[in-house]
Amino acid sequence: MAPLSLTIHGNCPTTNARATSLFLGASENRNCVQLPIFMPVGTQGTMKGLTAEQVKSTGCRLMLSNTYHLGLRPGPELLEKAGGLHKFMGWDRSLLTDSGGFQMVSLLHLAHISEQGVNFRSPHDGSELLLTPEKSIGLQNSIGADIMMQLDDVVSSTTTGPRVEEAMHRSIRWLDRCIAAHKRTEEQNLFAIIQGGLDLDLRSQCIKEMVKRDTPGVAIGGLSGGEDKNQFWKVVKHCCDELQRVQPHKPRYLMGVGYALDLVVCVALGVDMFDCVFPTRTARFGMALTAHGQINLNSTKFSTDMHPIAANCPCTTCAKYTRAYLHTIAKEPLCCHLLSVHNITYQLELMKSARQAIIDGTFPHFVQQFVANLHPKGCPSWAADALNSVGITIPNVAKVVPKDFGHIPKAS
Fold first, then answer.
1. Which of 53, 256, 26 minimizes the C-alpha distance to 146?
2. What DSSP character marks residue 151?
3. How many CA atoms lie within 13 A of 92 on its CB side?
4. How many other CB atoms sit within 10 Å of the CB of residue 164?
5. Segment holding 31, helix H or strand E
6. For a 10 Å CB count at each end of the chain, is N or C smaller?
């Protein structure tokens, strides 16, 4: 049996949204992942302060880890000795590993990029690591993730000029090297990554070439890096439209996107999979995600509030703890852990609700109600325009973008 298969259960007749099931793993231990899905990020095989069982309690069936960081610590030798990352971290569900390409942007001051690969200086001890397509795939084969990403040449989404085209063409060449280096094709699924910056013609060129390689799935990379939101959604829609035309039965993954509004809009545009550090990173600052926006549990207005974060939330945090208690411990590590459980659950439940609405044929109404709850003073115009492009009218549009829109707190 192939290590990945996709079953389509329903397509929204108005938008490009679809409800599917992704089957991963060997036939005797097949894991079904329902799409659309949000994947929480456990960079080194863990989400800070959470056990694998706590992550499972959120309903998570597919989480992301990072090849670059796992390659440095614990390293491939120990992972192979442990039997792969699943066994090493005690996780019996699915894993996806990023290739390490994103660190070309996030650790640019520590990296030198050439046709051979990326030469990094370790942020831990200063030692050098040459990450080539072959090395990235070798590390990911050792990690043993169900889905692994090609090493791509990543540039900031705000970059313009010839460097963007260079990175796109290099990503295609590096995909060929990744495919040649992949030794566990019956167990692990290699995804291509579409690059091309904000240039739609470059994106089309990249899609044409990547589709020829017929990888099990395709990702849209190089976004969510500070670009204008109007450019962001147009690139996402363009890529989804092209992929739907030429490769409709493969999963589509939008990398590094995790704000609730972005998730719902991009599901409407045709995306199946998302990941982001946002829900766990914002938890470190005492912030909880709800259908009506973020709430800051550091605020004294919650000091005597005996309600859970969200009344209908199925997470263990909302089942046991009040806002008043979380306010009291807001500066303690325990609060971060409890809010991480809640925030991950919120993201997963949001995608679960979107999926059910697609199946029920009520997705446009679901989106309108979601936007009205999240932005009662008016939907950001970029989101309204994006939704309108796929047939959903948002009646209440804000004249200005809310000040806190799109803000990710920096790691402490």
1. 26
2. P
3. 4
4. 20
5. strand 31-35
6. C
Report strand pairing: 18-24 vs 217-220. Answer: unpaired
Q: Please, what is the angle between helix 229-246 and helix 200-212, to 10°?
A: 30
Asked whether the beta carbons of 34 and 355 are under 8 A apart, the reply is: yes
Largest CA distance in the chain: 60
Tokens (6 digits) for 118: 């990326």
What are the residues whose beta carbons fall under 8 Å from the beta carbon of 34, sequence distance 6 or more? Answer: 19, 20, 21, 22, 61, 352, 355
Contact 119, 112 (CB under 8 A): yes
pLDDT digit string (tens) for the chain, length 412 residues:
458 999 999 999 999 999 999 999 765 567 899 999 999 998 777 787 899 999 999 999 999 999 988 988 899 999 999 999 999 999 999 999 998 776 665 566 667 889 999 887 766 677 777 889 999 999 999 999 999 999 999 998 999 999 999 999 999 999 999 999 999 999 999 999 999 999 999 999 999 999 999 999 999 999 998 999 999 999 999 999 999 999 999 999 999 999 999 999 999 999 999 999 999 999 999 999 999 999 999 999 999 999 999 999 999 999 999 999 999 999 999 999 999 999 999 999 999 999 999 999 999 999 999 999 999 999 999 999 999 999 999 999 997 654 443 444 444 3
Give the residue numbers marked as catalytic: 98, 275
Contact 204, 229 (CB under 8 A): no
